[in-house]
Design brief:
There is one protein chain. 20% of the residues lie in helices and 34% in strands. By secondary structure, the chain is an alpha/beta fold. It has a single domain, classed as Rossmann fold. The protein is globular, with a radius of gyration of 15 Å.
């Protein structure tokens, strides 16, 4: 089962529904959940949300959880902060489709085209990549659309794979579930 940490984002229930469509059980939990309460989950998704200050409890989860983590939008930014990256106002706010360019497919973008359209809804972004992370994807207006820790199974995406507007979004979520051991590659 996947734990979805609710940071108050408008798409948190879409994450739940998208996983359900894949046949993956998940549970939406408040962002006040403790690491002890997360110990029986196979993976964690940190949702988006409007207020980074109200979601800073997720930093402990990002640093100390022992299962794969995927941060979406604000969740991506929280992971960056946890590991010493910088988050700030985007040069151009995105509330529309944007073209994503995959720089490194790694596990998250396996079998995904090198370019696809994704739904973006944010005014902040990761400005400086944290130490021990690598960029997996960028867009014309955001240099860190996706990133991964070099040694841990921790991923972040600035865009929203859980919404229907994002091409290959369900494939990206399924790839994360493969990392979590819920599916085997090729299933």
């Amino acid at each position: 089962m996947i734990a979805i940490i609710n940071n108050g984002g408008q798409y948190v229930h879409r994450i739940f529904r998208s996983l359900k469509y894949l046949g993956v059980k998940s549970k939406i939990l408040p962002n006040t959940v403790t690491l002890e309460e997360l110990k029986d989950y196979k993976g964690i998704i940190l949702s988006g949300g409007p207020d980074i200050e109200k979601a800073k409890g997720c930093i402990d989860i990002a640093l100390n959880a022992e299962v794969p983590i995927l941060g979406i939008c604000l969740g991506h930014q929280l992971i960056a902060l946890a590991y010493g990256g910088e988050v700030g106002k985007a040069n151009k706010e995105e509330y529309a489709l944007t073209k994503i360019y995959v720089d490194n497919e790694d596990d998250l973008f396996k079998n995904i085209p090198k370019e696809f359209n994704a739904w973006a809804s944010h005014k902040d972004e990761v400005k400086t990549l944290p130490k021990n992370f690598e960029i997996l994807a960028h867009s014309d207006i955001c240099k860190i659309e996706a990133m991964k820790h070099k040694e841990k199974e921790i991923y972040g995406v600035q865009f929203h794979p859980e919404v229907a507007h994002t091409e290959y979004g369900s494939d990206i979520l399924k790839n994360f579930c493969i990392v979590c051991g819920i599916f085997k590659e090729g299933e």
